[in-house]
Specification:
By secondary structure, this protein is mainly alpha-helical. It has helices at 2-15, 30-49, 56-70, 78-100, 105-132, 148-166, 172-192, 195-210, 217-234, 240-246, 249-254, 261-274, 281-284, 291-294, 296-299, 308-336, 340-356, 366-387, and strands at residues 23-24, 28-29. Strands 1-2 form a two-stranded antiparallel ribbon. The longest helix has 29 residues, at 308-336.
């Protein structure tokens, strides 16, 4: 049953990067629809084997999710809170299942394979949208059903994973595939014209530089030459409009605009400061999923927070904000305890996520909690491997 459950989880993770490309009526994304049978298989396998695994990380996660659920009782929009709470419950099950069935290093690697291959589908869909002229905004492209910024971050997360996988393979064709993957990923990010995506893509490529120590001279030369050839071949097809938008990164930051996000952030903080729930509004928050309704009096309409940290602070309060920071710091601590190659991988991935979180709402995204789940599982299996030697 372990193999059946693991296979179902592998398929589920494979769908996450392109989940919105296929929508299931009445349910939502394809991965959400798939999550129901995957959870059922996983739970049945646990009952069959009568073995269950937990990690300290799960305790931190559950406490955070319980607090998020409690905010329903004082939420300014309980319907939105219901949706958010249900989403968090699903994410909690996903995180636990990944850990439950990742008992070996090769199994964690296999799940990374799943995410990277799923990201390849997303990249191909993004490039197809570009070639067919199906933009999600003016001269910006993404896989069907995705926001360009979200798509860029998902692709960026796959770059370090793909490179790490290439360093743990023996088949030369597979190695070549995974080492050329970052070039396709960077092309996909460029056509999204996402400024946040471009920044995190640059962070992602730093992992490649840190691994040159682990590569032979022949491999280094191949990567360099292959990169030059692919860039020269692809350059004529890169959209000029994307470069024009990316050039505005410095201006957007210096003018404290950041795609009109600053005004939204100020409105959210203003509402929080005026909250009077027992005089402790900033501690309790305004309710999970309710940010967009809080800014209506200030902006005249509903707007997403476009910032994970502010979203958690406003919706769930300072108490939950500290809980979430604890989860982040605990994840960093786990990464720091790993060998150099794995440590650099996870610190890079956490850096990508942390930077992207400043301009995106990804606290309730599957890729966010999958990242934490894989890190937790990888830490555990690496420790077990070291203790058994």
């Amino acid at each position: 049953m372990h193999k059946v459950a693991f296979a179902s989880i592998w398929i589920f993770i494979f769908t996450i990067p392109w989940q919105s490309v296929v929508m299931v009526p009445g349910i939502g994304t394809f991965s959400r629809a798939l999550g129901i049978p995957v959870a059922a298989i996983g739970l049945f396998a646990v009952l069959y084997s009568q073995k269950i695994r937990f990690h300290t990380f799960h305790l931190l996660m559950v406490v955070f999710f319980i607090w998020a659920s409690l905010t329903y009782f004082w939420s300014i929009n309980q319907d939105s809170s219901k949706v958010a709470i249900f989403t968090y419950a699903q994410l909690a099950v996903m995180v636990w299942l990944v850990y439950q069935y990742s008992t070996k290093v090769k199994e964690v690697h296999a799940l990374m394979h799943a995410f990277v291959l799923g990201a390849l589908i997303a990249i191909c869909s993004t490039i197809y949208s570009y070639l067919s002229g199906a933009s999600v905004a003016y001269q910006r492209y993404a896989a069907s059903g995705f926001d360009a910024n979200d798509m860029a971050v998902i692709i960026a997360l796959s770059i370090p994973m793909a490179w790490y996988i290439s360093l743990n393979l023996e088949n030369k064709y597979a190695i070549t595939f995974y080492r050329l993957f970052p070039l396709a990923a960077l092309f996909g990010i460029l056509v999204t014209a996402s400024r946040a995506g471009f920044i995190v893509a640059m962070i992602a490529t730093t992992y490649i530089l840190t691994t040159y120590y682990f590569m032979s001279f022949r491999s280094r030369l191949f990567v360099l030459l292959a990169g030059i050839v692919v860039v020269i071949a692809a350059f004529p097809y890169l959209p000029i409009e994307s470069f024009a938008r990316l050039e505005t990164i410095g201006t957007s930051i210096s003018q404290a605009d950041i795609g009109s996000r600053v005004a939204i952030w100020q409105a959210g903080l203003a509402y929080l400061s005026n909250s009077t729930f027992f005089g402790l509004g900033s501690l309790w928050g305004i309710g999970a999923g309710s940010f967009r309704y809080a800014v209506v009096p200030y902006l005249g309409g509903e707007y997403a927070p476009h910032n994970v940290y502010l979203s958690i602070l406003v919706e769930l309060g300072a108490i939950a904000f500290l809980m979430f920071l604890t989860i982040l710091m605990y994840s960093v601590k786990n990464a720091m305890q790993m060998p150099r190659l794995q440590r650099n991988l996870w610190l890079t991935l956490l850096a990508i996520w942390s930077v992207a979180a400043f301009t995106l709402n990804i606290e309730w995204r599957k890729e966010t909690w999958l990242l934490f789940a894989l890190l937790t599982a990888h830490t555990a299996v690496m420790k077990n491997a070291e203790s058994s030697t």
